Amino acid sequence: MNKERVHRITVPTPFPVGDVHMYVIAGDRLTLVDAGVKTEEAWQQCIQRLGEIGYRPEDIEQIVITHHHPDHVGLLDYFPHAPIIGHPKADPFLRRDRSFMDKYVRFFEEFFSECGVDRRLFSQLSKEGRSLRYASRRAIDIAVTEGDAVPGLPRWRVIETPGHAQSHIALYREDDGLLIGGDHLLLHISPNPMMEPPAEGETERPKPLLQYNESLEKMLQYDIARSLNGHGDDATDIPALVRERLAKQRQRAERVLDMVKERPHTVFAVCQKLFPTAYEQELMLTMSETIGQLDYLEANGYVRKKQEDGHYIYEAAGVSVCG
Ligand SMILES: [Zn+2]
Question: Ranges for the Metallo-beta-lactamase domain (predicted)?
């Protein structure tokens, strides 16, 4: 069968994760999947590598984004002619209009205060915006969700894989099991299940670690031969990767359960113990990881939470604290 070729383009990022990969699918429409970071260096490398595979930037006919994080959407501005295809939940993060950003900050101020976060760290919330200078500001032109075909790529289907981001999707080519997996199946690091506010029209906050675990298990339903990832090497043994990820996560949750068994904790108190130095600089990352483990323990009946003086306190479910 005549298959479209898939080419990899790798560009540097200023983030600790290092390089990010983009992919070019030479299908009915020349499609770029993900778009690096917005730096001159990334743009120059992108042009050079496109040239090596025989294309110019203006040849790109459409861009699919696997999720909305800055290291995947940075160069969108450099392809103004190309429509953007992605999950509808990526759209507000790409547009970043005032009312959305205000709501975002308000959500986290309230949520972090319920988690017992030291107020002096709230200024970090505006710093979160610093990474946005590496992102482009566009809108989703063509929204795709679970099971959709990608326009111009009839062999590829969209698989929703929420967890690392609410907007996360993977692209799957059924006839040979090739997956373009974004940050869902990274080989050497476990992607952080990032906290996000409830989406438009929803009232409950998402529980990203529970979603991530589900999205991992969902991968076992497909016969994936190879996952081309957003960072690092390709993944080939998906069942082994899924098992390893889930086992490591349970180990982390057990550590948290041991803390909570000793005495009830706020989310922030757990966070400080898990990440004694990193929490000050990386509040959003470390709190996302912490709340994820507590959500997992709560969903499985190991801990319960109660509200006390405006804070959530987590206690071990089997232990009667009041005697
Ligand atoms: Zn990401």
Answer: 19-231
Rounded Cα distance between 155 and 147, Å, is: 12
Q: Is the pLDDT of residue 322 over 70?
A: no
pLDDT at 323 (0 to 100): 39
As a whole number of angstroms, the distance between CA 100 and CA 78 comes to 24
Q: How far is the CA of 165 from the centre of ligand 1 (A)?
A: 7
What is the Å distance from ligand 1's center to 263 Cα? 34
Q: For 296-306, how does the pLDDT look when each residue is reduced to its tens digit (9 = 90+)?
A: 999 999 999 99
Residue 15 C-alpha to ligand 1 middle, in angstroms?
11
Mean pLDDT across the chain: 93
Ligand 1: centre distance to CA 202 (Å):
22
DSSP state of 235: B
pLDDT tens profile 185-230: 999 888 999 999 999 889 899 999 999 999 999 999 999 999 999 9
Cα 322 to middle of ligand 1, angstroms? 42
Q: Closest Cα to residue 227, out of 217, 212, 218, 237?
A: 237
CATH code 2.40.30.160 for 6-94+132-243: no
Euclidean distance between the first and the last CA atom of the chain, given in angstroms as a whole number: 70
Residue 119 burial (CB count, 10 A): 9
**Residue with tokens 């483990």, as numbered in its chain:** 293
HEC profile of 110-142: HHHHHCCCCHHHHHHHHHHHHHHHHCCCCCCCE
Q: Where are the domains of the chain?
A: 6-94+132-243
